Amino acid sequence: MKKVYFHRDYHGFRGGHLKVWDYFKHVDAAEGYRAEIYFTPQSVWDDYNPWFVLRDRILSEWRPDQAEIVFLAGLDWLSIDKAQRHHFSRPVINLVQGLRHSDPSEARFAFLGHRAVRICVGPEVTAALRATGQVNGPIFTIPNGIDVGVLPEPMPHAARRYDLLIVGLKAPVLAAELAGVLEVQYPTMRLLSLTEPVPRNAFLETIRAARTALLLPDLKEGFYLPAVEAMMLRTLVLCPDVGGNRAFCRDGETAIVPARYELSALLAAINRVGALGKTAREALITRAAKTAALYSLSRERAAFHDILTDIRQIW
Protein backbone atom coordinates (compact mmCIF):
# COMPACT_ATOMS: atom_id res chain seq x y z
CA MET A 1 0.00 0.00 0.00
CA LYS A 2 1.50 3.33 -1.08
CA LYS A 3 1.12 6.01 1.56
CA VAL A 4 0.48 9.62 0.66
CA TYR A 5 1.12 12.04 3.52
CA PHE A 6 -0.83 15.28 3.93
CA HIS A 7 -0.09 18.13 6.33
CA ARG A 8 -2.49 20.72 7.78
CA ASP A 9 -2.45 23.61 10.21
CA TYR A 10 -6.19 23.75 10.90
CA HIS A 11 -7.83 26.66 12.70
CA GLY A 12 -11.36 26.38 11.39
CA PHE A 13 -13.13 25.22 8.27
CA ARG A 14 -12.27 27.10 5.07
CA GLY A 15 -12.63 26.40 1.39
CA GLY A 16 -8.93 25.60 1.12
CA HIS A 17 -9.27 22.83 3.71
CA LEU A 18 -12.32 21.48 1.90
CA LYS A 19 -10.36 21.01 -1.31
CA VAL A 20 -7.46 19.33 0.50
CA TRP A 21 -10.06 17.04 2.09
CA ASP A 22 -11.38 16.22 -1.39
CA TYR A 23 -7.89 15.26 -2.55
CA PHE A 24 -7.38 13.20 0.61
CA LYS A 25 -10.47 11.20 -0.40
CA HIS A 26 -9.25 11.02 -4.01
CA VAL A 27 -6.09 9.30 -2.79
CA ASP A 28 -8.07 6.78 -0.77
CA ALA A 29 -10.24 6.03 -3.79
CA ALA A 30 -7.17 5.14 -5.87
CA GLU A 31 -6.32 1.45 -5.87
CA GLY A 32 -3.18 0.69 -3.89
CA TYR A 33 -3.00 4.05 -2.11
CA ARG A 34 -3.67 5.14 1.46
CA ALA A 35 -3.94 8.75 2.63
CA GLU A 36 -2.66 9.78 6.07
CA ILE A 37 -2.38 13.24 7.58
CA TYR A 38 -0.49 15.16 10.22
CA PHE A 39 -1.95 18.14 12.08
CA THR A 40 0.16 20.78 13.80
CA PRO A 41 -0.14 20.79 17.62
CA GLN A 42 -2.06 24.10 17.50
CA SER A 43 -4.69 22.73 15.11
CA VAL A 44 -8.33 22.81 16.19
CA TRP A 45 -10.28 19.59 16.66
CA ASP A 46 -14.04 19.93 16.44
CA ASP A 47 -17.00 18.49 14.54
CA TYR A 48 -16.36 20.87 11.64
CA ASN A 49 -12.95 19.37 10.98
CA PRO A 50 -13.65 16.88 8.15
CA TRP A 51 -10.91 14.54 9.43
CA PHE A 52 -12.54 14.39 12.88
CA VAL A 53 -13.87 10.84 12.42
CA LEU A 54 -10.70 9.46 10.81
CA ARG A 55 -8.48 9.14 13.85
CA ASP A 56 -6.79 6.03 12.43
CA ARG A 57 -5.43 8.20 9.58
CA ILE A 58 -3.89 10.85 11.84
CA LEU A 59 -0.10 10.73 12.07
CA SER A 60 1.38 11.17 15.54
CA GLU A 61 4.56 12.66 14.11
CA TRP A 62 5.52 14.31 10.84
CA ARG A 63 8.03 12.14 8.98
CA PRO A 64 7.46 12.98 5.31
CA ASP A 65 10.49 10.92 4.25
CA GLN A 66 8.50 7.80 5.21
CA ALA A 67 5.77 8.47 2.64
CA GLU A 68 5.62 7.32 -0.96
CA ILE A 69 4.27 10.75 -1.96
CA VAL A 70 3.89 14.01 -0.03
CA PHE A 71 0.88 16.24 -0.76
CA LEU A 72 1.31 19.92 0.10
CA ALA A 73 -0.94 22.97 -0.22
CA GLY A 74 -0.64 26.59 0.83
CA LEU A 75 2.04 27.08 3.48
CA ASP A 76 2.54 23.33 3.99
CA TRP A 77 5.97 23.72 2.36
CA LEU A 78 7.17 25.10 5.69
CA SER A 79 6.74 21.63 7.17
CA ILE A 80 9.60 20.34 5.02
CA ASP A 81 13.11 20.97 6.31
CA LYS A 82 14.45 24.05 4.55
CA ALA A 83 17.56 22.25 3.33
CA GLN A 84 15.40 19.54 1.70
CA ARG A 85 12.66 21.63 0.10
CA HIS A 86 14.39 22.34 -3.19
CA HIS A 87 14.42 18.70 -4.22
CA PHE A 88 12.76 16.46 -1.68
CA SER A 89 13.58 12.74 -1.65
CA ARG A 90 9.96 11.78 -2.35
CA PRO A 91 7.63 13.02 -5.10
CA VAL A 92 5.79 16.14 -3.97
CA ILE A 93 2.33 17.01 -5.27
CA ASN A 94 1.62 20.68 -4.64
CA LEU A 95 -1.98 21.90 -4.86
CA VAL A 96 -2.01 25.59 -5.82
CA GLN A 97 -5.34 27.20 -4.95
CA GLY A 98 -4.72 30.93 -5.33
CA LEU A 99 -3.24 33.61 -7.55
CA ARG A 100 -1.17 34.90 -4.65
CA HIS A 101 1.38 32.14 -5.32
CA SER A 102 2.44 34.12 -8.41
CA ASP A 103 2.93 37.38 -6.48
CA PRO A 104 6.61 38.04 -5.58
CA SER A 105 5.48 39.95 -2.47
CA GLU A 106 3.76 36.85 -1.06
CA ALA A 107 5.52 34.18 1.02
CA ARG A 108 4.12 31.43 -1.22
CA PHE A 109 6.03 32.78 -4.22
CA ALA A 110 9.31 31.49 -2.80
CA PHE A 111 7.98 27.92 -2.95
CA LEU A 112 7.73 27.94 -6.76
CA GLY A 113 11.42 27.14 -7.08
CA HIS A 114 11.04 23.89 -5.14
CA ARG A 115 10.54 20.88 -7.37
CA ALA A 116 6.98 19.54 -7.32
CA VAL A 117 4.18 18.27 -9.50
CA ARG A 118 1.81 21.22 -9.31
CA ILE A 119 -1.94 21.02 -9.64
CA CYS A 120 -3.62 24.37 -10.28
CA VAL A 121 -7.32 24.71 -9.49
CA GLY A 122 -8.07 26.73 -12.63
CA PRO A 123 -6.53 27.92 -15.90
CA GLU A 124 -6.03 31.44 -14.54
CA VAL A 125 -3.77 30.08 -11.80
CA THR A 126 -1.81 27.98 -14.28
CA ALA A 127 -1.28 30.97 -16.56
CA ALA A 128 -0.16 33.16 -13.65
CA LEU A 129 2.36 30.56 -12.45
CA ARG A 130 3.78 30.01 -15.92
CA ALA A 131 4.18 33.75 -16.38
CA THR A 132 6.54 33.94 -13.39
CA GLY A 133 9.16 31.78 -15.07
CA GLN A 134 10.00 30.44 -11.60
CA VAL A 135 8.15 27.13 -11.49
CA ASN A 136 10.29 24.04 -10.93
CA GLY A 137 8.44 20.99 -12.20
CA PRO A 138 5.40 20.14 -14.32
CA ILE A 139 2.10 22.00 -13.99
CA PHE A 140 -1.35 20.47 -14.44
CA THR A 141 -4.69 22.23 -14.46
CA ILE A 142 -7.55 20.44 -12.69
CA PRO A 143 -10.51 22.79 -12.20
CA ASN A 144 -12.11 22.43 -8.79
CA GLY A 145 -14.99 20.02 -8.59
CA ILE A 146 -18.08 20.08 -6.40
CA ASP A 147 -19.53 17.06 -4.61
CA VAL A 148 -23.14 17.37 -5.74
CA GLY A 149 -24.08 14.65 -3.29
CA VAL A 150 -23.75 17.07 -0.35
CA LEU A 151 -25.81 19.81 -1.97
CA PRO A 152 -29.47 20.16 -0.99
CA GLU A 153 -32.13 20.37 -3.67
CA PRO A 154 -32.70 23.89 -5.03
CA MET A 155 -35.54 25.68 -3.27
CA PRO A 156 -38.48 27.07 -5.29
CA HIS A 157 -38.02 30.77 -5.96
CA ALA A 158 -41.20 31.77 -4.12
CA ALA A 159 -40.18 29.85 -0.99
CA ARG A 160 -36.84 31.60 -0.52
CA ARG A 161 -36.55 33.64 2.67
CA TYR A 162 -33.99 36.20 1.54
CA ASP A 163 -34.05 38.59 -1.36
CA LEU A 164 -30.31 39.10 -1.02
CA LEU A 165 -27.59 37.22 0.81
CA ILE A 166 -24.22 38.93 1.25
CA VAL A 167 -21.44 36.39 1.75
CA GLY A 168 -18.79 38.57 3.34
CA LEU A 169 -16.59 36.16 5.27
CA LYS A 170 -13.53 37.34 3.33
CA ALA A 171 -14.54 41.01 3.28
CA PRO A 172 -16.53 41.62 6.51
CA VAL A 173 -15.96 45.38 6.66
CA LEU A 174 -17.21 45.92 3.10
CA ALA A 175 -20.12 43.55 3.71
CA ALA A 176 -21.20 45.49 6.80
CA GLU A 177 -20.92 48.81 4.98
CA LEU A 178 -22.92 47.50 2.06
CA ALA A 179 -25.63 46.04 4.31
CA GLY A 180 -25.94 49.36 6.12
CA VAL A 181 -26.53 51.26 2.87
CA LEU A 182 -29.03 48.70 1.58
CA GLU A 183 -31.05 48.76 4.82
CA VAL A 184 -31.54 52.50 4.33
CA GLN A 185 -32.17 52.44 0.58
CA TYR A 186 -34.36 49.32 0.56
CA PRO A 187 -35.98 48.99 4.00
CA THR A 188 -38.33 46.21 2.83
CA MET A 189 -35.58 44.06 1.34
CA ARG A 190 -35.17 40.73 3.09
CA LEU A 191 -31.43 40.93 3.59
CA LEU A 192 -28.93 38.67 5.34
CA SER A 193 -25.23 39.53 5.68
CA LEU A 194 -23.00 36.61 6.56
CA THR A 195 -19.64 37.67 7.99
CA GLU A 196 -18.86 34.86 10.45
CA PRO A 197 -18.07 31.23 9.54
CA VAL A 198 -20.92 28.73 9.86
CA PRO A 199 -21.00 24.93 9.43
CA ARG A 200 -20.86 23.90 5.79
CA ASN A 201 -24.37 22.42 5.74
CA ALA A 202 -25.77 25.62 7.22
CA PHE A 203 -23.85 27.68 4.68
CA LEU A 204 -25.30 25.73 1.77
CA GLU A 205 -28.81 25.93 3.24
CA THR A 206 -28.43 29.70 3.56
CA ILE A 207 -27.42 30.06 -0.08
CA ARG A 208 -30.33 27.82 -1.04
CA ALA A 209 -32.73 30.12 0.81
CA ALA A 210 -31.58 33.25 -1.05
CA ARG A 211 -32.88 34.53 -4.38
CA THR A 212 -29.62 36.36 -5.05
CA ALA A 213 -26.21 35.89 -3.47
CA LEU A 214 -23.69 38.72 -3.49
CA LEU A 215 -20.35 36.97 -3.00
CA LEU A 216 -17.28 38.86 -1.77
CA PRO A 217 -14.21 36.71 -2.47
CA ASP A 218 -10.55 37.30 -1.77
CA LEU A 219 -8.91 39.60 -4.32
CA LYS A 220 -6.60 36.79 -5.49
CA GLU A 221 -8.90 33.78 -5.61
CA GLY A 222 -7.74 30.83 -7.66
CA PHE A 223 -11.24 29.46 -8.19
CA TYR A 224 -13.89 30.39 -5.56
CA LEU A 225 -16.17 27.44 -4.88
CA PRO A 226 -19.15 29.31 -3.34
CA ALA A 227 -20.01 30.87 -6.70
CA VAL A 228 -20.31 27.45 -8.35
CA GLU A 229 -22.24 26.07 -5.37
CA ALA A 230 -24.71 28.95 -5.59
CA MET A 231 -25.15 28.34 -9.31
CA MET A 232 -25.90 24.68 -8.66
CA LEU A 233 -28.50 25.73 -6.10
CA ARG A 234 -30.08 28.05 -8.72
CA THR A 235 -29.33 31.17 -6.71
CA LEU A 236 -28.52 34.15 -8.90
CA VAL A 237 -24.83 34.97 -8.46
CA LEU A 238 -23.48 38.48 -8.13
CA CYS A 239 -19.70 38.31 -7.83
CA PRO A 240 -16.76 40.64 -8.58
CA ASP A 241 -14.01 39.59 -10.97
CA VAL A 242 -11.12 38.24 -8.88
CA GLY A 243 -9.23 36.39 -11.60
CA GLY A 244 -9.83 32.76 -10.76
CA ASN A 245 -13.61 32.96 -11.20
CA ARG A 246 -13.60 34.22 -14.78
CA ALA A 247 -14.24 30.83 -16.36
CA PHE A 248 -17.68 30.54 -14.76
CA CYS A 249 -18.64 34.06 -13.61
CA ARG A 250 -19.37 35.64 -17.00
CA ASP A 251 -21.20 38.95 -16.82
CA GLY A 252 -24.75 38.80 -18.09
CA GLU A 253 -24.38 35.15 -19.09
CA THR A 254 -23.96 33.17 -15.86
CA ALA A 255 -23.63 35.93 -13.26
CA ILE A 256 -23.75 39.66 -12.67
CA VAL A 257 -20.17 40.90 -12.41
CA PRO A 258 -19.72 44.42 -10.95
CA ALA A 259 -17.51 46.83 -12.88
CA ARG A 260 -15.21 47.17 -9.86
CA TYR A 261 -14.78 45.57 -6.47
CA GLU A 262 -15.96 48.54 -4.39
CA LEU A 263 -19.12 49.84 -2.76
CA SER A 264 -20.65 51.98 -5.53
CA ALA A 265 -20.06 49.34 -8.21
CA LEU A 266 -21.58 46.62 -6.00
CA LEU A 267 -24.65 48.79 -5.40
CA ALA A 268 -24.97 49.39 -9.14
CA ALA A 269 -24.77 45.64 -9.77
CA ILE A 270 -27.50 45.00 -7.19
CA ASN A 271 -29.68 47.49 -9.06
CA ARG A 272 -28.98 45.59 -12.29
CA VAL A 273 -30.28 42.44 -10.64
CA GLY A 274 -33.42 44.28 -9.55
CA ALA A 275 -34.04 45.43 -13.11
CA LEU A 276 -33.92 41.92 -14.56
CA GLY A 277 -37.24 40.64 -15.81
CA LYS A 278 -38.43 37.20 -14.76
CA THR A 279 -37.57 35.59 -18.11
CA ALA A 280 -34.09 37.10 -18.28
CA ARG A 281 -33.41 36.16 -14.67
CA GLU A 282 -34.44 32.54 -15.14
CA ALA A 283 -32.41 32.25 -18.34
CA LEU A 284 -29.30 33.53 -16.55
CA ILE A 285 -29.83 31.12 -13.65
CA THR A 286 -30.33 28.19 -16.03
CA ARG A 287 -27.16 28.99 -17.98
CA ALA A 288 -25.28 29.27 -14.70
CA ALA A 289 -26.54 25.89 -13.48
CA LYS A 290 -25.45 24.23 -16.74
CA THR A 291 -22.01 25.81 -16.43
CA ALA A 292 -21.67 24.75 -12.80
CA ALA A 293 -22.57 21.15 -13.68
CA LEU A 294 -19.30 20.92 -15.63
CA TYR A 295 -17.34 21.19 -12.37
CA SER A 296 -17.92 17.72 -11.00
CA LEU A 297 -15.88 16.04 -8.30
CA SER A 298 -15.75 12.84 -10.36
CA ARG A 299 -14.00 14.67 -13.21
CA GLU A 300 -11.54 16.17 -10.74
CA ARG A 301 -10.85 12.72 -9.26
CA ALA A 302 -10.30 11.07 -12.64
CA ALA A 303 -7.80 13.74 -13.68
CA PHE A 304 -5.92 13.40 -10.39
CA HIS A 305 -5.84 9.61 -10.62
CA ASP A 306 -4.15 9.93 -14.03
CA ILE A 307 -1.39 11.91 -12.32
CA LEU A 308 -1.07 9.35 -9.51
CA THR A 309 -0.79 6.52 -12.02
CA ASP A 310 2.08 8.21 -13.83
CA ILE A 311 3.66 9.98 -10.85
CA ARG A 312 7.07 8.29 -11.18
CA GLN A 313 7.34 9.14 -14.89
CA ILE A 314 6.08 12.68 -14.29
CA TRP A 315 8.39 13.24 -11.33
CATH class membership of the largest domain: Alpha Beta
Following the backbone from N to C, one meets helices and strands in this order, namely EHEEEEHEEHEHEHEHHHH
- Helix amount, in percent? 25-40%
Count of beta strands: 10
Outline? elongated
Assigned CATH architecture of the largest domain: 3-Layer(aba) Sandwich
Low-pLDDT stretches: none
Distance between the termini: 19 Å
Number of helices: 9
Task: Explain what the structure shows.
- This protein has helices at residues 15-29, 123-132, 172-185, 200-208, 225-232, 263-275, 278-292, 297-309, 311-314, and strands at residues 2-8, 33-39, 69-73, 92-96, 117-120, 139-141, 162-167, 191-194, 210-215, 236-238.
- It has 315 residues and is of the alpha/beta class.
- It starts with a strand and ends with a helix.
- The strands form two sheets. The protein has a six-stranded parallel sheet. Strands 8-7-9-10 form a four-stranded parallel sheet, with helices on both faces.
- The mean pLDDT is 94.
- α5 (225-232) links the parallel β9 and β10.
- It has two domains: 2-144 and 296-314, Glycogen Phosphorylase B (Rossmann fold, 3-Layer(aba) Sandwich); 148-292, 3-Layer(aba) Sandwich (Rossmann fold), CATH 3.40.50.
